[in-house]
Design a protein that fits this description.
This protein is an alpha/beta fold. The chain folds into two domains: 164 residues, D-Maltodextrin-Binding Protein, domain 2, CATH 3.40.190; 99 residues, D-Maltodextrin-Binding Protein, domain 2 (3-Layer(aba) Sandwich). It is built from eleven helices and eleven strands. A six-stranded mixed β-sheet has the order 2-1-3-10-4-11, sandwiched between helices. The chain has a five-stranded mixed β-sheet with strand order 7-6-8-5-9. The longest helix is centred in the first third of the chain and has 25 residues. It is globular, with a radius of gyration of 23 Å.
Length: 327
């Protein structure tokens, strides 16, 4: 009889523990959520993060605090969230380099697939292939023909090794067989300046602030990457696919959200719902549009699949091109 009562008591305790755990997850969040980003305030990721965080706070009924932890190409922030408790109260907003950085490192400090739980994609930003206004390059075919006529003479700018502009340039070389020189800069402004002056032949440039340079006849837009449609601000500029060079549709800038691995599915679902709700708000949509960002929120599974495709795509290119990054 004692054994039977003990079994009943144990079963009841297990049921109570399970119920309390489910209640705790359903009550999420019961405290402020900390959003970590690995880059300084004022950049594209920071801007998008703050727009989304505000909407999330309204949806969740708790403060969503943005904490910038810049340094080491985002690795400081990534390590911080990797070590955080998997309870949903610390999440990481990431750019495309989240996938790319570990591929380029000899000893990667994290695995994007094994150390984190995908929560949601956030937004994408197209890039525009540009050259100086007085350049002889008027199309992607012109660029390829000139580069093949004089291998190793032309150059392209980027804001750093492994960034979207660099990888777009490498992808163009791989697809066409051209040989051009990669010139990395510390920031977009000096890169654009050198392209406008004609000292660097071309670059893949974010859309933010680009229109004023085009209107001032300082830069010439050649083609669009990162999307499968033309941009309203550049209706006469073809996509790379329209220009005869497909495969650049997913090569633009993207932002997403991940949580520490083993974060409970119910918590991930709650965060995802709050993000999607934030990205449906008219005010948020207008603010995102003003910085050239297009909302792309989907399910955690859709973001997981997207990350897997991105990992495969860039691993092949980076290894083939021998692109490395010091730890």
């Amino acid at each position: 009889m004692w054994i039977q009562r003990r079994r009943v008591g144990t079963a009841a305790a297990a049921l109570l523990f399970s119920a309390s755990g489910a209640f705790a997850q359903s009550a999420f969040p019961s405290q402020p959520i900390k959003v970590i980003i690995g880059y300084a305030a004022g950049g594209a990721l920071d801007t998008v993060t703050r727009i989304v965080a505000q909407g999330m706070a309204e949806s969740l009924g708790q403060p969503v605090v943005v904490d910038n932890k810049p340094g080491a190409s985002g690795l400081i922030a990534t390590e911080f969230v990797k070590q955080a408790p998997p309870d949903g109260y610390t999440v990481l907003f990431v750019p495309s380099t989240f996938v790319v950085n570990p591929i380029m490192m000899v000893k990667a400090p994290y695995d994007p697939a094994k150390d984190f739980t995908p929560v949601s994609n956030l937004a994408t930003m197209a890039e525009v292939l540009v050259t100086a206004q007085d350049s002889k390059i008027n199309s992607v075919r012109d660029l390829v023909a000139l580069a093949k006529a004089d291998p190793g003479k032309m150059s392209y700018a980027s804001t750093g090794v492994g960034g979207p502009a660099h990888l777009s340039g490498e992808l163009l070389q791989t697809q066409t067989g051209i040989q051009t020189i990669h010139v990395p800069f510390k920031g977009n402004a000096p890169a654009v300046t050198e392209v406008m002056a004609g000292r660097v032949s071309y670059m893949f440039n974010p859309t933010t602030g680009l229109k004023e340079f085009v209107q001032a006849k300082k830069l010439k837009p050649i083609a669009i990457t990162g999307v499968n449609h033309r941009l309203p601000e550049f209706p006469d500029v073809p996509t790379m696919a329209e220009a005869g060079f497909p495969g650049f549709e997913d090569v633009g800038i993207w932002f997403g959200v991940v949580a520490p691995v083993k974060t409970p599915p119910a918590v991930v679902a709650r965060l995802n719902a709050a993000i999607q709700d934030a990205l449906r708000k008219p005010a948020a949509l207008e603010r995102l549009k003003s910085v050239g960002a297009v909302p792309t929120a989907g399910t955690p599974k859709e973001f997981q699949d997207f990350l897997a495709r991105d990992l495969v795509r860039w691993t092949g290119l980076i290894k083939a091109a021998g692109i490395t990054m010091s730890n």
